[in-house]
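Q: Here's a chain of 145 amino acids. Please give me its 3D structure as tokens.
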Amino acid sequence: MPSLIRLYVEFFEMKKRAWLAGIALVLYCGFIFFLSSLPASSISSYPFSDKAKHFFLYLGLGFIFSYFLKNLKWDISWFAICTAALFFSFIYGLSDEIHQLFVPGRTFDLIDLIADSVGGISGGIMIFFLFEINRSYARRLTNNK
């Protein structure tokens, strides 16, 4: 029971950035859900554009999710963050593909799910590099003073 209380307290003591990233994550998931609810007839299609759309949408999802995890008070390794981004993107992409089975003209596509997962891990890796660049830049600034 004490661990549940600790989690409850930590939840409400999260950094402001983590709260904002959490809100952005929920809104972004809603945006993806909205897009996947559109019938196939209302979406323009070009060869391979569907896979690129999936990749870049889920790159954003992985980016926001990783940013959210990194800004929590917990000390989480980058490997764990990128793994979680991959897992989250896969699970959300799977639910998205299943959801599309109920949308007129849309189907479940395994290649879309792969593009979702690759996009998600890419977003996690991208945020890792941005944090490292920022940390390296901050280190250089403090060493030059």
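Q: Can you summarize the key feature?
A: Helices lie at 2-12, 16-36, 49-70, 78-100, 110-143.
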